[in-house]
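Changelog note: in this version the structure field was regenerated for every chain. One regenerated record is shown below for reference.
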Amino acid sequence: MLSKFFQFNSKQEGFSIIEVLFALSILAIGVVGLSSLLIQNIQIQNYTKNKLIASMLAQEGVELLRNIRDQNWIDDNDWREGTVSGGADDILQVANGNNYIIQEIGIDGSVNIINASGAKLYIKNGFYNHDNTGTTTPFSRLITVLENDIEGDGDEESLKLTSEVQWTQNNIIHNYTIKTMLFNWK
């Protein structure tokens, strides 16, 4: 009886080595495809995150200029000037130079291209700024201001603002730009 149990039956069916290899190759193709999809998804997710941050940084640049204009009205100054005429917050002075960086503490007109080290943004105390003592980020911001005489009478009624944010991701340079106008509507 025991010999009957260990007897080899040539009619037993099973998987051949070719069938096993074929099944494993199909499984491997599926795993490679899935991992490729996951990697691409992570890259797109990082790009989307950086584009959202860039859009907020560009909008912040425009809002900081609006804040200076509004503070000028409150202080009964010319709408293009800061609280100190000809000082660091003077939009008109910067408009003559066209390009600059801006943050809550004032305007720096010495930066004239977005690739300049002064346009680089850093994170310090949870906020983006141009203070290079913070943690470096992939972002740079440059704001361009041009005076605009709409009526052609020599009196500039508006300022053309362009807030550009640039970042590098996977050795590709990306830009996000916001353009708007500031008017003396008061």
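Spot check on this record: DSSP finds three helices and seven strands in the chain. The chain has one domain: 18-183.
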